[in-house]
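Repro case for the chain-ordering regression, as requested:
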Amino acid sequence: MKINFYDAKNQLIFLLIFSTILIIIFAVYSANNALSYYMTPQEFIETQHSNNLRIRVGGRVVEKSVKYNDLGITKFEIFDENNIKISIIHDGVLPSLFGPKTFIIAEGFALNKNQLKSRSIIVKHENEFLTDLEKADIYVPDYPK
Amino acid sequence: MFNILSAVGFTGTFLALGLSIINISLYFIHKFKIPYIESYQKKIKDNNFIFSMMKINIYLINLCLFIAIACLYIAILTNQFNISYVFSVSSINLETKYKWAALYSSQEGSLLLWAFILSTFIHIFVRTSLNKFHELQLSIVSIFSIIIMLTLIPLVLFTSPFVLSAINQIDGKGLNPLLIDPTMLIHPPILLSGLVSTAIPFSVAIATGIATKKGIAVTWSVVIRKWILVSIFLLTLGNILGAWWAYTVLGWGGFWGWDPVENSAILALLPMIGLLHATYLHQKKGGFEYINLLLGTLGFILAIFTTFNVRSGAIDSVHSFAESDIGLYYLIFLSVLVILSIYSINKNDFHGSIKITSLLSKESAIIINIFITTMIMLAILSTLILPITFEMLKDQKIILSPDFYNQTIGALILILLTALSISSSLPKKFTSNKKSILEVTPILLLLSIFLLIAIIINIDQILIFLAFASCIGICYGSIISITRIKFKKNYNKNNLHIQLFIRSLSSHITHIGLALFAIGAISATTFQSHNQFTIAPGESYNIGQYSFKYNALRSRNPNKNGIETEVIADISLFKNNKLITSLFPGKNFFTSFPAQPVAIVDIDRSIIQDTYIFLQKWDNNLNTQFHIYINPFINLLWLGGLLYLLGTGMALFEESVVKNE
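-- result from build under test --
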């Protein structure tokens, strides 16, 4: 079958096929550099980390572990269901609902075997909150009066 | 323990499910010969009895679900905490207006609202539009019934909002703190309505595809053009409200985080936009039947895929509050829709073909834009499918970071804007390549000038400059096209001309809205500046010509909506030593969730920029840490969004305007 390249319809089809190939190549390349691996604190400790591997670690914030400094760096610990803990050093805004026992996912790069430097934190908006009326292990913030 | 509202509400959902099953059975009785009752079948077919029954059932389903949702809402309003759902989402001191948000704040309620909106849309469609489809009416109603049945099964069997609690509770847990915001009174219902509305094009497309008589109703998408516009309007509004909520509540200074659930919310919108443009081409040039069928079914398939994503927790998202075990059920629901869609696409036998006059014609430009929109949809879809596939194959959870979106989706959006800027200047009717080139020369010149400026000023931002130039080009091309329509002779003497005028005007307004939206989004994302500082009361912090004076930190007890303490910082904002406004960022602490404060953001708005302030924390000496974001031209984003909605809204009313004239 002979394809007539002077026909506008064929030109358009050729353009769209060529664009699709280019977009796929670009998207695969881009995705390869943007993969972020999800781990539990235990998996984080057990993994050999390379410097440029983007990691997400999910766990619950350890009570009374949250420490702030004036430069906006927050340091805290998270634990998983096996009670394995790792430290998170977070540089940035802490989202609403962040607090002790909330389930968070921190994204960043490993500093060492049990420390992650994160730039973004997600707080899971859980259906059932841990701190309910009966069992609240109440963290009392210093309210200004 | 007995609760009348719970009993009536549950009966409503149960009856609605039963009626949908009856409707499906009636369709089979009509379609297939059943031994022993053949003569009876023939009799009721002749009397059109089956079709009338199916229509009445659709109205009854809507009525049953109205009663069910009314029961749940009354239960929330009257604090009936012995219903588990009411206990988990509401409380005595929750303001009445937020009790509306409590209705859909958790999974069971949101699924009931979904079912009610779905049945309402179907009811309206059956009353107003169904008679335009003659031979397809029965198939369309039966597909509606299948969708209603699949929606109601989890509500009745697994996740009913009418389950009673074993203990009689005095007060409820209260509403999710993040939902205590006025935007949340409308954003979820509108987004849900948008997602649900895609069921109409889906059902009509499937019915057309599986029609036994070849060649009937190939123009289905033209007939339901208004329903496509309704979907686009609601999904756009829902997404804009979501972005507004994220901007004004979450405290991170942004409006879109490429979160999987946010991505899911725009997924269903993209095929609807593609379908609207493909319908326009089909109307003008013929052809496009397969593409229309595919895009028509994709909208609802992606809406259900979105629901699966949100409910299953397959991907980690900030919005996983609705996560539960019924995710798997939605996978089955999704499979049914995909099978129906594949069957219908395979079964039909369309012959139409579009004639392309030139690559520089309007129809080529529209096809290219549909193609890019589809590519954006596929790229976003891949970010949602890839993690699930990766986990299944390699047992490793992954997610694509925002870099992917900024690069791939950003590049596609840039191509879309550039293509749209060129196509907006192309003449509606192609005459010659020479004339087309002449028409787009100003746009090409504009793009070249911006590229040159970028090379001179900052080559790193060449793509940003190209995007801005494209947006200006879209506005220029659209305004030129509007002036061309305006000076057409006799346009007001003929209804058809008025209709075409409104259609053209609405499409150009929508495109201008899109361009302004893009300028706002790109500016606020690329040129946002962020400062954080810790100061004591009485101290000031300077950023350029602005000075932030921290006067005091105060607390009070609002005693409503479950807020135990509201902590507010009093900030005076000066520009060149002149007081321009006072800002009050803070935090709310909730009685039920004392360890999980929610930010109170304050913003000084102007068309040039937003000054956005967020309070992070304070110590015992009241030394307080603030984050300031300067977002240039972000208000163009909201303005562009409004224009986009205005254009879509105008297109919705074009026929009625013609009738009034």
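Ordering looks correct now. Chain B touches chain A through 79 residues (CB under 8 Å).
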